[in-house]
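Forum: Protein Structure Q&A
Topic: Joint prediction for protein chains with partners

I've read a bunch of threads here and the consensus seems to be that you should model interacting components together rather than docking separate models afterwards. I'd like to see that in practice. Below is the full input, 846 residues plus whatever partners are listed. Could one of the regulars post the assembled result?
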Amino acid sequence: MRCPFHGILGGMYAAAFAALIYFAWPAWDYYRLPLQERPHAEQHADYKPGGTIGHGVGILGSSMVLLLFVYSVRKRQWLGLRFGPMNRWLSVHIWLGFMGPLFITLHTAMKFQGIVSVSYFSMMAVMLSGFVGRYIYSQIPHSSTGDVLSLKEIDEQIDQLGQTVASQSIAGEEILELTREYAGRLEQPRRRGPVLWLRILLYDLTRWYRPWLFRRLVHEAMPQLKPAVLHELSAVVHKRSMLLRRRAFLDAVNSVFDLWHVVHKPFAWIAVIIMFIHIAVVVLMGYRWIF
Amino acid sequence: MRCSGRSAGSSILALLLFVSFGRSAVAQISPGDLSKPHEKLEGMANCTQCHEVGKGPSREKCLACHQALQERIQQGRGFHGRMPAGQVQGCPTCHSEHAGRDFELVHWPQGEKGFDHAQTGFPLRGRHAKLECRQCHSDTFMDKNLKGPDLNRRRTFLGLSGDCLGCHFDEHRKQLGTRCVGCHNEETWTPAPVFDHAHSRYPLTGKHVTAKCGACHLQVADRSGSDTAYTQYKNLKFGACTDCHKDPHQNRLGPNCTQCHGTDGWKTSAQKSVYHDKTDFPLRGKHVSVACDKCHKTGDVLATLPHARCTDCHKDPHANRLGPDCTQCHSPAGWRTLVQKGFDHDRTDFPLRGKHVATPCEKCHTSGDKQARLPHARCADCHIDIHRGQFAQRPDSGRCESCHSLDTFKPAVFTVKDHAATRFPLAGAHLAQTCLACHESTLSDARGKYRRYRYEDRACLACHQDVHAAQFVLSDPPKQCTHCHGVEQWRLPNFDHNALTAYKLEGAHKAVPCLKCHKSEQIKGQIVVMYRETPNTCESCHGGKRPAGDVGQKG
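Posted by a regular:
Agreed with the consensus. Here's the joint model:
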């Protein structure tokens, strides 16, 4: 049964994209004008960065960027704030981190000049690095609530799945042998770095193919096995092999993830600090939107 | 420990990034380069030169530099000074900034040439509309005192006064004041189309109107302007004609030329008649417009000419047939026009009387030759006989004047008395009828309908209807209407039944109403009282019984 949160999240993406199109569509010709011709365009009063609409989407995008940090607060367990499952917060964090910069892009009216452009490009770097981080994050085993599993918890899950496979040993020793062989290809990596990440990437790109290959091997060995049983068996075997694989690569992934944070966060801080400077300068110069 | 190590790394990287970006970013706090004229205001320290803290770009701060413009706005002059108060939201509304060094602060939506100059209070008309902007907006014509810290005299459109003399040289050298538009417009300088000499101290009349200005207003040498001379308009003498004109009479006839001459011309002057009035031949009518030398052929206008008779000058086209006194028919007002009104037809053998007097000559003299003799013995020589010769058999051969007069054709002068002389003298009720009751338009020919005046059959039934349905015409012998009726009236109050009929009324029959015995019958749709062949036996009226005491008639 699908979680209703995913539906809500889909709606949030749809609403945000609709709002983007709603604001950007009438100004399409304006954005395409050279900078020196824009002040003479009719839409300038509305769509310039300080205009009624341009300034409004800037405030909206900035607010979304600031809300990103709620996830950081939630993640700090030492603060004792454990509201909501982490995986949902991460989804909202990603939504904010993806849509906020797009609204801010509208606010810039494609004019990237001055100190605030540093903030903008930092923010875009954070957004792009976020996609990379999300992939790395997917390589780390998590609980259903999004909490990172300890090694002990990972091992327990692997054993549990192994027992499930064993309980379905109606297929006999041959299948167990195939299962072991399926999982046995995931030995501890000897080398880290780009080669490791190429292996991970290659594995993920061919992940769809592996259960099918397993089912074909089993079917060749045990043609009398019912398809439904075979599918259930392959799912369990696949899940267990994934877990085994991530268990085996965990140290290497964790060290890369730490490194990713070192890159992701400074750009975020730069973006936010300059954004605050920008807001302060703008307010000081008398641009207060509708207020 | 891993977490703290990660945070330390992040912090160090953030610091490095901020320092590396920050240094250049501080210099770029501006959202974009200022335009070239404002280039010197670039830099973080200069933001408040234009922006008021917390309020945005300030109009006052702009005008603090643009002082020349501020002065004009305060005076309500020029494009900015004439802008409605509600429309002025601030300088950046029109003059956007931070759009790059090459950005033009002054934007012309329709191009410079398309600018509606009327918005400045100085609409361009005539030749002004064809000039290039910088032909007027140049340093040459600009107010020399126009100054300001940011004023670029090569770029600004300020500094022109709007007065003609602000740009144009005073060709009249201060003779006529500074209000050029009182005489000139913006289309052309010469001739001055607005100028009206009538408003001057010397209104032009006659030939002075068409005379060239320079004939009176002479050139005065002067090299102070763009040319070498100017036209004199002031301090001209014009009290006497001789101030401008030479006196050909060399003062023989006095200094007042206008006694004989007018401005219409020297020779054809209307004042000529004034002079001639002093002679014994005052000029009247067409003589006034005749050129002097037409009569004074020698050229000496003061020479006395014979003038007792018209023929002293004019030829007699009648070859003396009508006598020597032309004025009996003609006057000086014109030869032809007075012929028609003044000719005495009584001098001919056809004096005009009645309506002939008012008839235009050409109506009879159709050839145009009014002196031609026309036949006129009978009316029909000119007039058409509308009766188509019905009276031709009369003893007078049907002469029109027997019935009609010259004063009017209708009504005719023919009376009842005259009718007695005709073949049908009127009597009785006929005397009370109008002419046209009998003489109706029953005849017609190619020219149309006309009235019958001649009747060959003059019997009653020629005009009247037989209401008895021919009862008496068929009787033997036939009885005429006059057997019973007279012309006095139709009804027969005293009809003598005994004398005029074969059935004598006696006794009670005398008191019986006529229609008791004479019954009506319908004959051909007409109700007819039957008189003839009325049954005359007792039984035919009374049946088998005879009234008591009635002896009756036999047969």
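Chain A has two domains: 4-145+255-284, 151-248.
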